[in-house]
Structure formats: structure tokens, C-alpha cells
Amino acid sequence: MSKFKLKISSRLLKKKVRKQSYSAPKHCRFCSSKEQLETLDYKNIDLLKGFMTERGKILPSRVSGNCYRHQRLLSTQIKIARSMALLPYCSLHF
Amino acid sequence: MMYYETFMLASTQATNDEILALEKHLDKVINNAKGKLVLFDKWGKYKLAYPVKKNVYGLYILCRYELPEEVIKDFSKELSLLFKIKYNDIIMRHVTINLPEAPSTIYLKPEPIVSRKAGSLDSFLKENKIEGFIDKEKPKNNISEQETAKKDSDKKDSDIEKEEKTEEIVEEKAEKTVEEKN
User: For residue A83, what are the domain limits?
Assistant: First the structure.
């Protein structure tokens, strides 16, 4: 049995895989439709809960795909809702 | 003209008369500042995300109004003093926000506790198909079982009769063969 040899180094192979693998392009939900932007409000809890983790942290734009401007708008709305006890600061309060 | 809305969190101990008095007071304050109150809405009972001043439940109140541009600085100071001193027992928290457009009476709000359906336990179990805890009171099934039992008994009788007939036939044939041989 002859040993199998890689013709490319492992570092280059990883790079090649990374280039070829397809990931869907991110898009901001509020940039695409004006109807969505109008619903962005501190009273609309169901929408805001979608941008939070189970424990009550705000999701980063790296995950949610929002643009810079709308991420600021969204985070301020969540903070107002938190101060009015509509949303939790942290999910567990002992 | 500028458009604003204030959102208030009241304790559940506040009576309807006290809230009506608050509405009248707010209306008077806004009219003195040459403004106009558009909306005053009481939402209902809600469960809070965390206890505020040792209260687990709370009432939410929303009001929208118009004001001239220069007045807002003095008005906001007056409003905060009013909530802190006169309505200290009723209102726990409040926030004022600048609206971009003219205030409308339509807006989104979460469902209060009262309007949510309180289903019974049996219906919940049936919906989720949990059979272990449901009471075994099924008269229809009992009737069907009795009927099946009757049918079984009838079948058994008929089978026995058939077997007897076959035995008789066999015996007759055997007799006939014996007679022919003789």
C-alpha cells in the first residue's frame, strides 16, 4: 500500500474550501421594506424579541444582518422597552 | 407644531377614578401650553418582565398630543414634577418620545392578560395528544365492546353448529360406505 499524499498543503486547502463554499448574502430587513421599518417601535414586543437571545441580550448585527443605522435604531427601541418593563434586562430574576 | 407621546406605567392599585382625574389634569396642563390632547388610552393589566417597586403586575397608559415648538422644555419639567409629586403612588415610570408624523389613534400593542384565553386542562391534553392523564369515561367505546362481544358469541355458536353438521355428514358417508361394502 502506497501512502496517500496531499498535493496541496492543508492551509491552502482550507483557503480553497472557504472560497468555494457559498454563503447567502446578508441583507438588512429594514432597508428592504418600508412596511417593516414602520413597525419598528418600542411597543411592538414581538418584533423586538426576534432580535434578542433567550437570556435577553441584544443580537449583534454580525448575526442578525442589520445595517449600521438600523442596528442603532433597534437597540435604542429595545432599551426603552426594557426601562418600561416590557422586555427583560435578563431573563432570570431571582 | 411638534408631536409627542408619553408612555406611563401605573400600579394595579390605581382606581378608575384616579386615572380619570389624571386624564383631566393632563388635558388642563396641555391646554395651558396651547397644545391639544389627541389620545388617552388605558391598555389593561400586564405581567411585567421584572418586578417594579415590588409589583409583579402593572397597568400601561399611552397618551399622544401636539405642542408648539418652544414650550417643550418647560412642559417636560412640569410633567416630570407632576408625576413625581402628585401622582407618586399611582405612576411608577414614564417616558416621553418625539413622533415624526402627526399622531394617529392606530398603533401596535401586546396582548394583555385578560384577553388571553384560559383553556381547561383536558382540552390542553387533547390538543397535545397526551393520553395518559385523560379520564377514562368513554360510554361509546363500552357499547361497541359489548356489541363485538355479542358478535363473537354468535360466531362461536354458528361455528359449533357447522362443526356438528360436518360431523353428521361424515358419519352418514361412513355408514353409506359400510352398507355398500356389505
Answer: 29-94
